[in-house]
C-alpha cells in the first residue's frame, strides 16, 4: 500500500458530499435548506445570489449550495456545477403555469457534462397546498421517465411542514454513497 | 569498537582453519557469514510471499485495463449493432442493456479508483465519457424524445376501441392536447378567477381559507380576496384592481400591466410587469425582475376581518419592508434602480371604494 493509497483512503473516510440545489424561483429551495437545518423559515427573502450550508447528517458532511432561481441568475448556475455529487431539483407543485419552463431548465441541466456523475433528486415541493399537483403528475410533466443518464428519484414534500425532507435527503445520500464510497 | 571485535573474531576463525590451507584462507567465507546470508535470502523470500498474498490480482492495473477495455469493446459493439435495428422495442431493449452495462462499467471504475495510477484513471474516465456520449446520440437517433403535453381529460374519454399500438398516432393525439393546455391547467378544484373581462370578482374568507389562489387572464376587473390565502399567483393581468387579505407565504406576479395591487404577504416576486402600483405590506422582501415603472407604497386598504386574517396568516404586522425592493436587473449597490420608485405621499390612493 503506497502513500497515495493511504491518502486516498483517508479522504474517503471524511465522507464529504457536495449537493447543488436548483430550480425555478419561488420553488422553495432556501426554505428547504433552512427547514432541514432547523432554522426559522418565516423571514426568508428571495435569494439574490446563493446560500451555502455545511451540515452533518448520517455521518456525512454535506456541503449544500442553494443558488437563486430567478431568470437573471440562471446563467450563473454553471459556476456551481464542478464536482457536484448530488443535484436537488426543487419544483413548486402548485405552479402549473411554469411547468414547461421547469421541464426545459431541468433537461438542459442534465445535458451538462460536469453534472454527468451526479444523482438527481426531484422535490415536488409545496404538497401542503390544496391546489398542488401530485408527485406523479410532476413526474409526467417533467418527463422524468425519459432520464437514462442519471440515477433519479422524485419525492413529494413540504418545506413548510418539513414533511418528507429527510426521506429525500436520505435517499440521495444512500445513492451517492453507493457510487462514491463503495471502496471502503 | 564493533569493527575491532569483528576483526578479532575473524582472526580466531582464521587460526582454526589456517592449518589446512593458509593461502586460501583469505578468500574463504566463514560459516557464520554464509548462514547470515542464507537467513537474509530467506527473509527476502518470506517478505515477497507476504506481499504476494496481500496484493489481489484484481488490484493490478494490468488486470483492470484488460477487463475495462474488453467490456468497453463489447458495449460499443452492441451500440453499433442496434443502429441497423428496425424493430423499435428490440432497439429499446438493446439500449437499456447498453445503459446498465455502462453504469456497471462506471461502478467498476469507481471501485478501482483507489489503486489506479492517475493516468490510467483519467484515460478510463475519458473513454467512458465517450461511450456515454455515443449512447446518448444513439438514443436520440433511435428514440427521439417525446415532447411533454398535459393530457386533456376530454380527449381521453371519447376514445373508442382499444388504444392504437402505432406510436405515431399516439404522438399526434398528444400534440393536439397541447393546444388545450390552458383548459387543462385550471382544474375545478383550483381556487381563483380566470378569463374574465370588466367584472367585480369577490371571494369570501370561507372560500379562501389558506388555499392557493390563481388569478389569470383578467382585463378591467376588480378582484377582492377577503380572506387569508396561503399563496397567490397572478398572471396575464391588464388594467385590474387586485386586493387581497394577508398571504401567508409568497405572491407571484407575472405579466401584469396598468394595474393596482394591494395585499400583505411574506414575499412578493414580480416579473414582466409595467406601469403598476403596489400598496404593500411585506414581512421579508419584495423583488422585481424584467419590470418597468412599478411603484410602491405602504398598505392602507382594509376590510372587516383583516385583523383576524392577519392572525390566521401568521404574518408579523409590525414588520413592513415595502420600500426595500430588490431589482434582479439592477445589482448596483447604492444607486436606485430606474425600474421602480416610491409613490409620493400626495399621489397615494386613500379612497378604496
CATH homologous superfamily of chain A - what is it?
Answer: P-loop containing nucleotide triphosphate hydrolases
Helix content of chain A: 25-40%
Q: Report, as a whole number of angstroms, the end-to-end distance of chain B.
A: 114 Å
Q: Helix coverage percent of residues of chain B?
A: 40-55%
Low-confidence segments of chain B: 1-22, 154-186
Mean pLDDT of chain B: 80
Q: What is the average of the pLDDT values of chain A?
A: 90
Family (chain A): Belongs to the small GTPase superfamily. Arf family.
GO molecular function (chain A): GTP binding; GTPase activity; metal ion binding
Protein name (chain A): ADP-ribosylation factor-like protein 2
GO cellular component, one term (chain A): centrosome
Fold blueprint:
The complex is a heterodimer of chains A (184) and B (353).
Chain A: H1 3-14, E1 16-22, H2 29-36, E2 50-57, E3 60-67, H3 71-74, E4 86-92, H4 99-110, E5 119-125, H5 135-141, E6 152-156, H6 165-180
Parallel strand pairs in A: 1-3, 1-4, 4-5, 5-6
Antiparallel strand pairs in A: 2-3
Chain B: H1 2-18, H2 31-54, H3 61-81, H4 88-112, H5 118-142, H6 153-156, H7 167-179, H8 181-185, E1 191-197, E2 200-203, H9 205-208, E3 212-219, E4 222-225, E5 231-238, E6 241-244, E7 247-257, E8 260-289, E9 292-298, H10 306-313, E10 325-327, E11 340-342
Parallel strand pairs in B: 1-3, 2-4, 3-5, 4-6, 5-7, 6-8, 7-8, 8-9, 8-10, 9-11
Helix pairs in contact in B: 3-4, 3-5, 4-5
Protein name (chain B): Tubulin-specific chaperone C
Function (chain B): Tubulin-folding protein; involved in the final step of the tubulin folding pathway.
GO cellular component, one term (chain B): cytosol
Amino acid at each position: 500500500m503506497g502513500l497515495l493509497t493511504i491518502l486516498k483512503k483517508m479522504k474517503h473516510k471524511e465522507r464529504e458530499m457536495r449537493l447543488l440545489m436548483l430550480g425555478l424561483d419561488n420553488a422553495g429551495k432556501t426554505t428547504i435548506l433552512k427547514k432541514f437545518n432547523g432554522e426559522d423559515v418565516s423571514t426568508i427573502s428571495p435569494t439574490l445570489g446563493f446560500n451555502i450550508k455545511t451540515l452533518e447528517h448520517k455521518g456525512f458532511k454535506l456541503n449544500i449550495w442553494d443558488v437563486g432561481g430567478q431568470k437573471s441568475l440562471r446563467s450563473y448556475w454553471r459556476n456551481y456545477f464542478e464536482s457536484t455529487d448530488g443535484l436537488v431539483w426543487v419544483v413548486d407543485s402548485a405552479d402549473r403555469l411554469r411547468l414547461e419552463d421547469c421541464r426545459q431548465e431541468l433537461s438542459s441541466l442534465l445535458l451538462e457534462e460536469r453534472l454527468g456523475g451526479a444523482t438527481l433528486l426531484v422535490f415536488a415541493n409545496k404538497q401542503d397546498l390544496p391546489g398542488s399537483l401530485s408527485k406523479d403528475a410532476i413526474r409526467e410533466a417533467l418527463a422524468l421517465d425519459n432520464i437514462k443518464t442519471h440515477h433519479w428519484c422524485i419525492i413529494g414534500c413540504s418545506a413548510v411542514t418539513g414533511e418528507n425532507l429527510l426521506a429525500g435527503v436520505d435517499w440521495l445520500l444512500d445513492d451517492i454513497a453507493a457510487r462514491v464510497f463503495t471502496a471502503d | 569498537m564493533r569493527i575491532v571485535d569483528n576483526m578479532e573474531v575473524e582472526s580466531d576463525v582464521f587460526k582454526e582453519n589456517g592449518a589446512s590451507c593458509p593461502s586460501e584462507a583469505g578468500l574463504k567465507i566463514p560459516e557464520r557469514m554464509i548462514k547470515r546470508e542464507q537467513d537474509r535470502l530467506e527473509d527476502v523470500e518470506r517478505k515477497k510471499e507476504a506481499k504476494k498474498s496481500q496484493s489481489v490480482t484484481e488490484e493490478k492495473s494490468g488486470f483492470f485495463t484488460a477487463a475495462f477495455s474488453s467490456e468497453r469493446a463489447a458495449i460499443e459493439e452492441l451500440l453499433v449493432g442496434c443502429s441497423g435495428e428496425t424493430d423499435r422495442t428490440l432497439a429499446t431493449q438493446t439500449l437499456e442493456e447498453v445503459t446498465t452495462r455502462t453504469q456497471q462499467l462506471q461502478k467498476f471504475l469507481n471501485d478501482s479508483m483507489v489503486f489506479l495510477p492517475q493516468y490510467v484513471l483519467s484515460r478510463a474516465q475519458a473513454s467512458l465519457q465517450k461511450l456515454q456520449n455515443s449512447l446518448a446520440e444513439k438514443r436520440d437517433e433511435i428514440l427521439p424524445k417525446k415532447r411533454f403535453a398535459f393530457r386533456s381529460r376530454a380527449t381521453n374519454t371519447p376514445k373508442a376501441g382499444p388504444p392504437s399500438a402505432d406510436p405515431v398516432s399516439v404522438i399526434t393525439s398528444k400534440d393536439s392536447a397541447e393546444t388545450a393546455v390552458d383548459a387543462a391547467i385550471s382544474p375545478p378544484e383550483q381556487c381563483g378567477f380566470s378569463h374574465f373581462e370588466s367584472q367585480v370578482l369577490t371571494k369570501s374568507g370561507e372560500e379562501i381559507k389558506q388555499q392557493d389562489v390563481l388569478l389569470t387572464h383578467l382585463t378591467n376587473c376588480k378582484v377582492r380576496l377577503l380572506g387569508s390565502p396561503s399563496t397567490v399567483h397572478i398572471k396575464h393581468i391588464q388594467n385590474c384592481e387586485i386586493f387581497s387579505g394577508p398571504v401567508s407565504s409568497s405572491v407571484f406576479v407575472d405579466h401584469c400591466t396598468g394595474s393596482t395591487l394591494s395585499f400583505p404577504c411574506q414575499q412578493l416576486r414580480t416579473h414582466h410587469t409595467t406601469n403598476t402600483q403596489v400598496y404593500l405590506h411585506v414581512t421579508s422582501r419584495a423583488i422585481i425582475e424584467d419590470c418597468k415603472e412599478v411603484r410602491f407604497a405602504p398598505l392602507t386598504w382594509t376590510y372587516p376581518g383583516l385583523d383576524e386574517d392577519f392572525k390566521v396568516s401568521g404574518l408579523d404586522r409590525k414588520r413592513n419592508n415595502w420600500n426595500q425592493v430588490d431589482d434582479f436587473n439592477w445589482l448596483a449597490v447604492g444607486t436606485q434602480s430606474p425600474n421602480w420608485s416610491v409613490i409620493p405621499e400626495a399621489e397615494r390612493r386613500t379612497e378604496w371604494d
